[in-house]
Design a protein that fits this description.
By secondary structure, this protein is α/β, with parallel strands linked by helices. It contains eleven helices and nine strands. The strands form two sheets. A five-stranded parallel sheet has the order 6-5-7-9-8, sandwiched between helices. Strands 2-1-3-4 form a four-stranded parallel sheet, sandwiched between helices. The mean pLDDT is 91.
């Protein structure tokens, strides 16, 4: 089952722009029957529990929306990595987001990119301004949010494959992206994109969560040895990541354990071999039967571990 899509809207204090945007987006989605989407907002400099500004409440009231129960939330790393889309009001907010969670870059956008000109522009803060400024801000938010929904949720094709690498695997990931596109796979590239050092757990998590939430069918991860990515991805319940060094292992990973994430090492395996491993892995199918019963046991163990962890937290 596909989990709910999560959209996070970000501004400064979470009392004006992102608060209004949250209310507007909820209505836009409801009008289109998108009830499987969760919408939240937060601020890069917000304090928890502050009410929406009077100007924001008044502007939304003019549109039949109620912000009386809104309470601001400070932006957290957990909220960023849990979101499927992050929409920021200004370039400075986008920079803050990417500094806090570099692995989330692929899913972060400036909301102003969805204006009619297609040029990314900041949506200015109306805080302390007269009602007409709030009304104009609300109009801009509604226009950009409507365009976002039409472009990304209505017209967009669901990707089938998510790829990520650390800085050691960028070159191999680039070759894998090209190969996947040549094979006709729709994909999302979660990074990294350069030689600057990044942390493999962040990138492994992004791909793993896309897989277990049903956003993509499969994930591909690359680091220097593959070991770090493999361990990190398998921390997420529902992920069956397989580190494969040859085509035989790749085929067995799909046929016997129904692996949903392929992990490759950029060191020790030639690019040609890695691409062949990828092709074999993507072409193989799960055999089911006795293997399905064994996977069911793994799922029960995962559920047991989660239950034990939950009970431990409740007692502490």
């Amino acid at each position: 089952m596909t989990a709910k899509l999560k959209i996070l809207l970000v501004c400064t204090g979470n009392t004006c722009r992102s608060a209004m945007a949250e209310a507007l987006l909820r209505r836009i989605l409801h009008e289109r029957g998108y009830d499987h989407v969760d919408v939240a907002s937060s601020g890069v400099a917000a304090c928890d529990g502050v009410a929406a500004s009077p100007g924001a409440r008044a502007a939304m009231a003019q549109l039949g929306l109620d912000l009386s129960r809104h309470a601001s939330r400070a932006l957290t790393w957990e909220a960023l990595v849990d979101a499927d889309w992050v929409l920021a009001m200004e370039h400075v907010h986008l920079g803050y987001v990417l500094n806090l969670a570099p692995g989330a870059a692929y899913k972060c956008r400036l909301l102003g990119e969805y204006n009619s000109s297609g040029v990314g522009e900041d949506i200015p803060d109306p805080f302390g301004q007269p009602p007409e400024v709030f009304a104009h801000c609300a109009d801009r938010l509604a226009s950009c949010l409507t365009a976002f929904v039409e472009r990304e949720l209505v017209s967009g094709s669901r990707p089938q494959l998510a790829l990520a690498s650390d800085h050691h695997g960028v070159e191999l990931k680039g070759a894998l992206v090209g190969e996947a596109q040549a094979m006709g796979w729709r994909l999302v590239d979660c990074g990294a994109s350069g030689s600057e050092a990044v942390d493999y757990p962040d990138l492994a998590w992004e791909v793993a969560r896309l897989v277990v939430r049903g956003r993509v069918n499969y994930g591909i991860l690359v680091c220097d040895s593959g070991l770090g990515m493999d361990i990190a991805a398998n921390k997420l319940p529902g992920v069956r990541a397989a580190l494969c060094h040859d085509v035989g292992a790749a085929e067995m990973a799909r046929r016997h354990v129904d692996a949903n994430v392929l992990v490759l090492g950029a060191v020790g395996v030639s690019q040609e071999t890695a691409l062949e491993i990828f092709r074999v892995w993507m072409g193989a199918s799960f055999e089911g039967e006795r293997h399905a019963a064994r996977l069911a046991k793994l799922s029960r163990y995962e559920a047991l571990i989660q239950s034990l962890a939950s009970n431990s937290r409740s007692r502490s």
